[in-house]
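Cont'd.
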Amino acid sequence: MLELQRNVIFGQFVDTGSPIHKMDARIKLIATFVFIVASFLIDSFLGFALVLPLLALIQLISRVPAGYVLRGSRFFLGFLVFILFFQVLFYPGEVPESSYLWRWGFLSISTTGLYTAGILGLRVIFLYYVTTMLMLTTSLVDLTNGLELIFGPLQRIRVPVNELVLVFVIAIKFVPIFIGEVERLARAQTARGVPFDEGGAFKRARRLGRLLVPIFISGFARADLLTTAMNTRSYRGGRYRTKLRQLHSTATDWLMLLLVVAWMLAAWQLPDRLLS
Amino acid sequence: MIEVKDLSFAYRTGEADAVPALRDLNLKIEPGQLVAIIGHNGSGKSTLAKLLCAVLYPTEGEIRIDGVPVREENQWEVRRRVAVVFQDPDDQLVMNRVEDDVAFGPENLGLPREEIAERVRSSLEALGLVEIGGRLIEDLSPGQKQRVAIAGALAMRPRFLVLDEPTSLLPVPVARRLISTVGDLNRREGMGVLHVTHSMSEAALFERVVVMDEGCLVLDGTPAEVFRHVERLREIGLDVPLAASLAHRLRSRGTPLEGDILDGADLRNALAAVRESTAS
């Protein structure tokens, strides 16, 4: 049986009421942004090793079970390995003959290629982890309010911030619903004799293709219904809206942000200094 | 008051394959009335519900909600007066926490924060959701989700609440509890309720039943009045509740049953009365 719900957690929110859940969403968003920038700047294994303790600390404080996050990332990690495999084979880098470990036609494995793929993999995992963690610990409303406040100034140059943010938030809300739908369709087809868990990887992937069309159709139908429902609830764009909940940042929130910035600076700069 | 005058509606108007859904409908619903609109699939009952809350607009004729005609330029005025709850709560709940979702409507009205908080609190209270106000909607049962959807509609403080088959995905006991909660709301808040359903036993719980078939209004009256037309109802594919249909057959064979018979208890009482009068 195709079990997705437990294996894909992107976009889920797990309310454990931890200090991280209670943090100001704006601060969390900025911290995530800092992490994202850092993930592009850090380019050594040592740097990523330095990042790891902070991520472990965040995981611990958030009280979201680590097993849940790991299990929920299986599909993603599998996909990543698949991509890195090709990265290694096709992009050896501009290297001298001596660093090739294996070569066959245009396929090759070089030490530089392995190194680049390793760094790339860590970079992607880091990116994935911080964004997943942001969503696991921030409710949709806080996320919306935070994004709207941060990007609010853009409204002066006529960027429809409220609407864009709502589109983003609804997209996230639909992830678990879609996953449920894929499972339902897969079950319906399994009942008619389509085996989703047999055969090689390519056969399986091709069978999943059969789910694409029905998923698109039901996606459009749902989007249509939701739009109608939002209209009947008087949604007419962000301009007219007021907010029930307000965000408050505390001194601790700012300290946390400072910690994140300092830590990332260290992970970026220290390895070079140490090695030189 | 809802006034429906010579209302006709067709899907895809102007095209060759236009589908007429409603024909020359006339209907008046007083403020605070508790009405069930019943019909089988394709009778036009859901189309009527969508017209009442300005999701669709009349092709011909007109609808007025407290004097405001349902037209595109008045859509927001209409939606302030009529709130609607659809069949599947997953398609209408926007936010992921209960309180946040109930607040979504009032936030759209641009109300001050204190007022929103007040409305959310009282709506949650009215539906018995106070304890789960902070929970995630995806963790709730279908019945609870539907209650959240109703709380969201209630927080709009509408004059009329349109329920478009909100019980069709729920188990019968859960549906029953939901209907009785809606009845309480109607009594307490004086808000008109239009409940669209295909279940006759649910319709029996309302003060007025409107029966629709093929886009036309067929019967209109109290449940007792409507259930008397057993043959007519059967013709259009609706089942009269067992007790009412039994009473109808007994009467047609000459048993002098008194009063309105809508459920088992009514029938028992009426039969007991008959036995007493024959014994004496």
